[in-house]
Amino acid sequence: xxxxxxxxxxxxxxxxxxxxxxxxxxxxxxxxxxxxxxxxxxxxxxxxxxxxxxxxxxxxxxxxxxxxxxxxxxxxxxxxxxxxxxxxxxxxxxxxxxxx
Length: 100
Hints:
Blueprint: H1 43-46, H2 55-99
């Protein structure tokens, strides 16, 4: 573990020795922004279509999500069954040892 640096002395904390703050950024002129063609007609062709996913991609994502949920559910069911079998085997072993 690395040691922390030593604490500053009283002379380091004197008001005359305060660190220099970085200069503030220059103000940005908001009038330079052009919002004129955001919803302009024809802007979809300009930027390559509607910008969303195609129906085929949406279908594949939905099928993958349902498949992943099924796999998680199946894994949980297998885990539960294994735990039940282990518990049953331990109980059966304990019962048999008392009989003998």
